[in-house]
Amino acid sequence: MDEIGERLARLCAQAGEEGFREWAERYGAGEALARLGQAARSGLRTPAVTADLDALDDAFARHGIDGLTVGARAFEPLRGGRAHPVVTAWGCPAEESCSRLEPQQREQPEQRSDSSRTPPPPRCWLTEAPLVSRKFQL
């Protein structure tokens, strides 16, 4: 995954928080956030997108919220068995997707009934679209 995609994923996971857009406006980064939404929808990965991510980070950092779109991530493979289980998760709906993943809840047999409904997938607050189901072999 590219760095811009990683940063957009972190932003996407937080942009749906109540008041987030208002904070961005108040901190002087509302236009940058709007452009980042367009970049997420179109899959744009340019230096201008990085500049908008930096501007958003700087604006929030000046108000005590550090590391909005940056942070250390690491992958550690599972130790032990040789099986390759499949994990299903909600993923970014954009054509050039970011790395955001949300766990899908498995429906328990006792939860199944004709009257129950499967909850809707989480939404990408940048593209305003529902996340899509993705499968990963570990």
Describe the structure in your own words:
This protein has helices spanning 3-15, 20-26, 30-42, 47-61, and strands spanning 86-91, 101-103, 123-124, 129-130, 132-137. α3 runs antiparallel to α4 (47-61). The chain is globular and about 45 Å long. The protein has 4 helices and 5 strands. The model has no long low-confidence stretch (mean pLDDT 81). The chain is an alpha+beta fold and 138 residues long. Strands 2-1-5 form a 3-stranded antiparallel beta sheet, with no helix packed on it. Strands 3-4 form a two-stranded antiparallel sheet. The chain has 2 domains: 3-61, no CATH class; 86-108 and 116-137, no CATH class.
Task: Detail the topology: elements first, then pairings.
Elements: H1 3-15, H2 20-26, H3 30-42, H4 47-61, E1 86-91, E2 101-103, E3 123-124, E4 129-130, E5 132-137
Helix pairs in contact: 3-4
Q: Cα distance, first to last residue?
A: 17 Å
Oligomer: single chain
Average pLDDT reading: 81
How many alpha or pi helices? 4
Unreliable segments of 5+ consecutive residues: none
Strand content is 5-15%
Count of discrete domains: 2
What does the largest sheet look like? Answer: 3 strands, antiparallel
Order of helices and strands: HHHHEEEEE
Give the total of beta strands: 5
Residues in helices, as a percent range: 25-40%
Strand pairing plus helix content: what structural class?
A: alpha+beta
* 3D shape: globular
Task: Looking at this protein, list some descriptive labels.
single chain; 138 residues; alpha+beta; 2 domains; three-stranded antiparallel β-sheet; two-stranded antiparallel sheet; 5 strands; 35% helix; globular
